[in-house]
Design a protein that fits this description.
The longest helix is centred in the N-terminal third of the chain and has 25 residues, at 7-31. Strand 1 (71-74) and strand 2 (78-81) form a beta hairpin. This protein has helices at 7-31, 44-51, 55-67, 107-122, 136-146, 163-171, 195-208, 223-238, 255-272, 287-299, 332-349, 378-386, and strands at 71-74, 78-81, 96-101, 126-131, 152-155, 176-179, 190-193, 214-218, 248-250, 280-284, 308-314, 326-329, 357-360, 363-365. Strands 4-3-5-6-7-13 form a six-stranded parallel β-sheet, with helices on both faces. The protein has a six-stranded mixed β-sheet with strand order 9-8-10-11-12-14, sandwiched between helices. A two-stranded antiparallel ribbon has the order 1-2. The chain has 387 residues and is α/β, with parallel strands linked by helices. It has twelve helices and 14 strands. It has three domains: 7-86, Orthogonal Bundle (Arc Repressor Mutant, subunit A), CATH 1.10.10; 96-188, Rossmann fold, CATH 3.40.50; 195-330 and 364-386, Rossmann fold.
């Protein structure tokens, strides 16, 4: 049996995570030519302020990028992007694929990147990572440039839905696969989670816990959140409960801020309606929203789950919330693995095979945020994952 992680080990792990985030962000900017060949990087102090980390973390990330051939240090001048990386810009036909993600600071996308890179390494492919920052215009530029340089692309689409950019890839017969987010009306290989089933599992559980009034917290998104809402409605219908659109709360904000503000709103609304202390349920459509919801509930002195039961989606760091969060788990490793497999099959076939749609089944992880009698133990969780 492995011992529980010591404080010093945890600090080292956190430092590695911060260093990796800085490294990947700078590497992406070099690959996208935000930092052009021969350009001097900002000073150490400027990078520390930008990323909110220590100079030790910045220097460690820069050293790794130098060893990888992305950067070079010039005496008394600073750190520069290596100009020779542009000597061979066209990688078409080589064993290189591009992975476009909407965010690098989201652990869900980070886990997918890690698994995709591992699978590509096993297949003797290299990976270029591009961060669209969920900006449709930037994503279109990245797609246009990368389509001329790589053998294929894995695209986690931006919310803007670049139909023109995707159509051009299809016209040029550039192999690509959609991951996580589905784009309607395009016959393209896709791999994602069965979001409708996940929404159903979460809502059915809250109803079974006696929460006849279940609020849904939604941030701006596309198909995946709407599919989760379809599962929510299916569970209500199965229980003979009429759908009430006023219980679906939407926000223009993202992640924690979305969950915090919408929960403040629903608590105010619940009080105005004179619910007489009736316990309610909250289905947060991702775990970051659930985390923000926790903050608002605790500010209001609400007990979780006695007064408000909460279920999230993704199961990313959900066990570290207090109480541990019930969440719909997506198999992130399998998402990354399947996306790479589909893309390589498409590349080898020249795009002649039909475009498959793969939806992985989610799993509801029940913990104390929705069921006080849950037997979940953080120690057993770590021991089980380590064995």
């Amino acid at each position: 049996m492995k011992e529980k992680m010591k404080p010093t080990q945890k600090r080292r792990s956190d430092a590695r995570t911060l260093r990796q985030h800085v490294l990947e962000d700078i590497r992406t900017q070099i690959q996208n030519q935000t930092f052009a060949p021969g350009e001097r990087l900002p000073s150490i102090n400027a990078l520390c302020q930008k990323y909110g980390v220590s100079d030790i973390t910045i220097r460690a990330a820069l050293r790794e990028l130098m060893h990888a051939g992305y950067l070079e240090s010039q005496w008394r001048s600073g750190v520069f992007v290596k100009a020779q990386r542009e000597q061979k810009p066209n990688l078409a036909g080589e064993k290189v694929i591009a992975l476009l993600v909407p965010a690098l600071n989201n652990p869900f996308f980070g886990d997918i990147i890690h698994e995709a890179e591992e699978q590509c390494r096993l297949a003797d492919y290299r990976v270029l990572i591009a961060n669209s920052t969920d900006d449709a215009a930037l994503e279109a530029q990245q797609i246009k440039k990368l389509s001329q340089q790589v053998a294929g692309l894995i695209v986690m689409p931006s919310r803007g839905r670049n139909y023109v950019a995707y159509a051009e890839l299809m016209e040029k017969n550039v192999p690509f696969v959609f991951l996580d987010r589905y784009v309607e009306r395009l016959s393209v290989p896709f791999v994602g989670t069965d979001n409708e089933q996940g929404g159903y599992l979460a809502t059915r559980h809250l109803l079974q816990m006696g929460r006849r009034r279940v609020f849904v917290l939604v941030e701006p998104d596309g198909t995946s959140y709407e599919e989760r809402l379809c599962g929510y409605r299916r569970a209500l219908k199965e229980e003979g409960i009429a759908f009430d659109s006023s219980l679906v709360l939407r926000s223009p904000l993202f992640n924690d801020a979305c969950g915090y503000m919408l929960t403040k709103e629903l608590l105010l609304r619940s009080g105005d309606e004179g619910m007489g202390g009736e316990p309610i349920g909250i289905f947060a459509l991702n775990d970051c929203i659930a985390r923000g919801s926790y903050m608002a509930l605790k500010e209001a002195g609400k007990s979780i789950p006695d007064e408000v039961a909460v279920v999230g989606f993704d199961d990313i760091s959900a066990v570290f919330l207090d109480p541990p969060l019930s969440s719909v788990r997506q198999d992130v490793r399998e998402l990354g693995t399947t996306a790479v497999r589909l893309l390589l099959e498409t590349i080898l076939s020249g795009g002649r095979h039909p475009a498959p749609v793969v939806r992985l089944q989610p799993e509801l992880m029940i913990r104390q945020s929705s069921n006080a009698a849950s037997s979940f133990s953080l120690i057993e969780h770590f021991v089980g994952n380590a064995s």
